[in-house]
Amino acid sequence: MHLLYPAVLAALLFSTGLYGVLARRNAILVLMSVELMLAAVSLNLVAFDVWLRDAMHSGQVLTLFLIALAAAEIGIGLAIVLLVYRTRGTSAIDQLRELGESAHPAPDEPAAERTTETTPT
Amino acid sequence: MTGQEVVFVIVGVVVLGAAVRCVTTRELVHAALWLVVALGGLAVQYLLLTAEFVAWVQVLIYLGSVVVLLLFGLMLTRAPIGPSPDADSGNRPVALAVSLASAAALVALVVDAFRTSWIELDRPHGESGPVGESLFQNWVLPFEALSVLLLAALVGAIVVSRTRGNEQRTEQRTEQRDGQRNGGVG
Amino acid sequence: MNTTTAAVLVPLLPFVAAAVILLTGRRAPGFVRPLAVLPTLTSAGLAIYVAVRQGGDEPITAATRLAATGNDRLDIQLALNLDGFAVLVAVLVAVVAGCVQLYSTGYLSGDPRYPSYAALVSLFTAAMLLVVYADDLIVLLVGWEVMGVCSYFLVGHYWETSAARAASLKAFLVTKLGDVPFLIGILALANEADTFRISVIVGKLTSPLAEGPAFELSHPTLIALLLLAGVAGKSGQAPLHAWLPDAMAGPTPVSALIHAATMVAAGVYFVARLLPVFASSTAALLVLALVAAVTMLGSALAALAQDDIKRVLAYSTIGQLAYMTGALAVADRDAAVFHLLTHGAFKALLFLAAGVLIHTAGTGSLTAMSRMRGLKRRAPDAYWTMTIGLLALAAIPPFAGFFSKEAVIAGAEHAALDAEHGVPAAAGWIVLVAGLLTALLTAAYAARLWLLAFHDPVDSRTEPVPVSEGASPVMAGVLWLLALPTVALGAAYPVLPDWFDGGDLAPTLLTALLATGAALVGGLAAYAAWRSAYEGDAEATGVDPAPALLRGLHPHAAAGFHADAAYAAAVVRPTEAAARLVRFLDGAVVDTYVRAAAAAPGLLGTAARRAQTGNVQTYLSAIVAGTLVLAVVAVLVVAGE
């Protein structure tokens, strides 16, 4: 079998997952897209392992690890999403913007003045 | 083109189509089901690549637990049944451009790099026996480390999702059980 | 005690006293008075001792190397030169300073800033004595500048009043205006003469035969004029005289010490020491004579029109210093220093007596005093000593002023009529004519001052003298102590040439008659004008004889001939305009860069902040896109290689 088939499929699958991560609004859908990306990486690992005939089966073992990691990631991710949903009432990613810079930042000059006043004393 | 290649391409088209549906559908539950199709197709691909152990693990873990977990998540966040018009965020054009660019770059790179490489599939390379031996002989230390990591993830999931209310405690327990099951796989 | 040791102690004692007072004055105010008075009196005694020991013999010089300048021939040396001029001027300075310190203990008894005042006066005395004794131009300059700073602080002693603040600033700036060319002149002179030692410079200039080939300065006029600027600033000669009348905002003892007897005399003394340098340039002597004549006449006219008693005395100081400058212009330094000595005595007396008078009357205005009844009886010591001082000022024989002014006028006549070597006859004529005219005017304003303050023949004055404490015994004692040389110093004219160059200081008949006649005419004219004003409608026009005497000139003279206005137009307004320009440039041009330097990062920050939306997907898109671009570039670069 030509190596290009699994490699190209993995690349396309990865890009599809990337699109999902970047375009989806619901956090759980984003997590699904992440699974797609991980699956694409797994496919690559298996394909190259078979191609290289690795005696230690590195690619396949790593794929196993990856699957376990994906399961853990989903567990943690879902827990976080649930927490966010409970506290914020939504799981839409683009509405969680608390860390964004507000349009009119509070001036921090008073704080600077206070420090200069207190410095001599 | 050998028979294996034909099957691989057909299943690959199905996987890719299912993945695209998964990231574009407006019905959230359908997205999870399309994911099942895509991941199941991938398991078939693994089988085609003679990695049967990985294929069965894929079916067990992904299809058996991860997707179920995702469905639980959708339900717990009260995802609407039926199409929801706001499934995609405003970032969609950018996402499309970036992913198309990424696809183009990756495919071009891969094609350029491996256009003369063939995988020899006469001898199977992924039966349970050799892979298990390799796993418990050469990879036993990372394997144990991974189990510690899974334990940490389990504890973390509990801590993060713990609440004081009674009704949430059942959800918590569900997650716990899922986490344990995941840990058992590792 | 060695004469040199004593001479070193003379400036050192007040200096140490000043340092000690400054260090301890606030904690131990009880020690300030003895610390202020005793060292100054001791150094006065030592100065007299030095003068007696020196006795007009060969100058005693002692030098020790102080600092290198990078030019081996031009070392700065802590050098003393004790010739007759130096020791006598030192005696004058130390005695007047001692008197002023004594007087100040009474005059400033209740002043909270007395310790710093006493310390500054001591420091000033030390600096002046250093100037007098110094043989090195740089050391002299140090003393000169220390005096300037002390003068600044002492004039501004009452810094609560804006007048004192302005006056101190003005005194400082105007004298500095002269000091800058003075410093350049000193450096130029030292460069040409290859030494900073005054005695060596003078020796080279006056005895060319001993030095082999004749030594001449290559730019005598330039150097002399540069030095003259500093002298004019320090000695209050036109056009840098404007600070002196304003400096009367300081305490009266300060006026007596600094602005009458000593500091302003430093300029004259300096020219006397370096007279050969000035004498080597005819142009410099002519300029000196012109400056002296203009200053003399202008200040006498201005003094006649002033209302404040201290301003009258200040203008008269300018005029008397101009007499000394005039004597120097005709290369007669004996007469100049003689007049310096007598003037120091009687002007200090006049100022201190005026201080008592102001203390008693509560005002310095002559108009106000002319309405007060019995001022004479309330301040008898001031009345009598002031009378003596005014007689000396008007050069009435046999008071000290007569002899010294005589010497000046005789010297001018000598230069005008006899062909003196190196002295232009024109300078002699200028000084002679101006001196005689000024003698007339001096007598007039002295008489006016006396008549307005005290004279009340028919008891027509109405207002009572305000109740105030009179002069303390110490103050009165100091007045009478100073009255002594005012009366008697003139009689020293046969002895003084022993200390000086040996010229004749005796009055000559012709000039004596002329000058005394002029003085009598001036005095009588003032009396007549006063009398007519006194007997006329005194209530309406006042009793001041000055308007009648000066007529149209009076307003101009009262304003000091608009020197301040001229300064304002020539210096102050251009400076202010330049300052406004600089402020505008600073605000509109320089600050623009500064503000832009602040605004540009601000704009960049705003732009960067816009990217900071909080939307994780945007961030991730940017990251992935960037990674892709980097990866593609890396691959292309690798492929290109």
TrEMBL record, chain A:
Keyword Cell membrane: yes
Domain of life: Bacteria
EC number: 7.1.1.-
Basic and acidic residues: compositionally biased ranges: 111-121
InterPro entries: NADH_UbQ_OxRdtase_chain4L/K, NUOK/Mnh_C1-like
Membrane-crossing residue ranges in chain numbering: 33-52, 64-85
Substrates-to-products reaction catalysed: a quinone + NADH + 5 H(+)(in) = a quinol + NAD(+) + 4 H(+)(out)
Predominant localisation class: membrane
A Pfam match: Oxidored_q2
Keyword list, A-Z: Cell membrane, Membrane, NAD, Oxidoreductase, Quinone, Translocase, Transmembrane, Transmembrane helix, Transport
Subcellular location: Cell membrane; Membrane
Membrane topology: Multi-pass membrane protein
Subunit structure of this chain's protein: NDH-1 is composed of 14 different subunits. Subunits NuoA, H, J, K, L, M, N constitute the membrane sector of the complex.
Protein name: NADH-quinone oxidoreductase subunit K
Organism in which the protein naturally occurs: Streptomyces hainanensis
Lineage: Bacteria, Bacillati, Actinomycetota, Actinomycetes, Kitasatosporales
Automatic annotation (TrEMBL), chain B:
GO molecular function annotations of the record: NADH dehydrogenase (ubiquinone) activity; quinone binding
Keyword annotations of the record: Cell membrane, Membrane, NAD, Quinone, Transmembrane, Transmembrane helix
Location(s) in or outside the cell: Cell membrane
Gene Ontology cellular component list: plasma membrane
Pfam families per record: Oxidored_q3
Catalysed reactions, as listed in the record: a quinone + NADH + 5 H(+)(in) = a quinol + NAD(+) + 4 H(+)(out)
Membrane topology: Multi-pass membrane protein
Sequence segments annotated as region (Disordered): 165-186
EC number: 7.1.1.-
InterPro entries: NADH_UbQ/plastoQ_OxRdtase_su6, Nuo/plastoQ_OxRdtase_6_NuoJ
Keyword Aminoacyl-tRNA synthetase attributed: no
Main EC class the enzyme belongs to: translocase
UniProt key word Coiled coil: no
Membrane-spanning intervals of the chain: 6-24, 31-49, 55-74, 94-119, 139-160
PANTHER family xref list: NADH-UBIQUINONE OXIDOREDUCTASE CHAIN 6 (PTHR33269)
Family in the record: Belongs to the complex I subunit 6 family.
Biological function: NDH-1 shuttles electrons from NADH, via FMN and iron-sulfur (Fe-S) centers, to quinones in the respiratory chain. Couples the redox reaction to proton translocation (for every two electrons transferred, four hydrogen ions are translocated across the cytoplasmic membrane), and thus conserves the redox energy in a proton gradient.
The name this protein goes by in its record: NADH-quinone oxidoreductase subunit J
Lineage: Bacteria, Bacillati, Actinomycetota, Actinomycetes, Kitasatosporales
UniProtKB/TrEMBL annotation, chain C:
Keyword Disulfide bond among record annotations: no
GO molecular function per UniProt: NADH dehydrogenase (ubiquinone) activity; NADH dehydrogenase activity
GO CC term (a single one): endomembrane system
Membrane topology: Multi-pass membrane protein
InterPro entries recorded: NADHpl_OxRdtase_5_subgr, ND/Mrp_TM, NU5C-like, Proton_antipo_N
Keywords (A to Z) from UniProt: Membrane, Oxidoreductase, Transmembrane, Transmembrane helix
Domain spans labelled NADH:quinone oxidoreductase/Mrp antiporter transmembrane: 134-412
Name listed for the protein in its UniProt record: NADH-quinone oxidoreductase subunit L
Native source species: Streptomyces hainanensis
